[in-house]
Fold this protein.
Amino acid sequence: MTLTADPLFDERRIHRPSVVAIGGGHGLASSLRASLAFADSLTGVVSVADDGGSSGRIRRELGLPAPGDLRRCLSALASEDSLLAKSLEHRFDRGALEGHAVGNLLIAGLASAGGDFAAAIREVARLIGAVGTILPATVEPVTLIADSDDGPLVGQVTIERATGIRNLRFEQAAPGAPVEAVEAIRGADLVLIGPGSLFTSVLAAAVVPEIKQAISETTAHRLFVANVANDRAEARGFDLPEHVEAIRDHEIVIDGVVAPIGTHRVDEVAAMDPSLSVRIADVAADDGWQHDPVKLGAVLADVHRTRERRSSHNHGSTTHHA
C-alpha cells in the first residue's frame, strides 16, 4: 500500500522504501508521521512496558499489555477526518475514569471482549482509518528491570526517574515478539530506532530478544534518530556519544545517526565507530523540544535516496551508508 506521495521522490529511479520504526511514546509517533510522505509501507513496533498512569491501571486491573504508546502511534497515522481518531487522546477529568484516555479504554475493551490484544489494535486502526501497521513489541505484558548506580530498578516509572542506568532487560525471561513485527524488520528497507526516552521507550522495544535479533540480521539501513532535547532524568546530561554507547552496550546494531543541528560532541561518535554515518540536520520543531515531522521526513527520505543511489552504483550492495 503506497502512502501519501512525496513530490521530491523520483519514482522512476528510486523506489519508495518499506519503513519500520521502533520505540515508544511521542518520539515514535514523530518517526511514523515523518515517514508517511515517502514510505511505501510503514510499520510501528511499539513498547508496551509502561506501568504508570492510565496504562498502568489497565495493566494491573485487566492484565493487558500497556496500550498508551500504541494509542499515540495509532493517532499519528489516523485519518484527519475521523471523529473517533480525534477522540483517542481525550482524557476524562473526573469520576472513576479520571486520567484514562479514550483510546486506552477502547483498546482495552476490544481486547477484553475479543480475547486478542493484537486484534484489538488492528480493529482500532481500521475504525480510525490509520495508514500503516502498528504492532506491540511483545505479545504479553512485560516489566522492565535495570541496574543503576543506586542499585536494581524495577518498572518503567522507576527507571525513567533514575540516572546511571545500564543493563536494561525484562523481568520475564524471554518475552516473545509478534511474528509480524519480526518479519517486517527483516523485510524492511529502512529501520528507524528512536527518537524517544532512551531506556524506557527506545531500548524498551529494541531489546526484546526477537526484535534485537531481527535488527541485527536485517539488510535494512538502520538509523538511530536522536532526540531534539533530553530532559528526562534517565538520560539527563546525555549527549549523542552517550546515547550511541548505550545502544551499542545493549547490542543494538545501527548503521547511521540523524541528529539535530546543535548536537554536541559529534566527532566522538565518529571516533567511536568510523563506519557509522552521522547526519546533522534541521529537524527540530519551532518549540525546540520535539521533531518537526515534515523536516524529519525530508531528511529521512534524502538518506534513503542517497543510499539507493550509492547501492545502484555498487551493483546493489547494501553495505554503503548515507
Observations:
- The two ends are 26 Å apart (CA to CA).
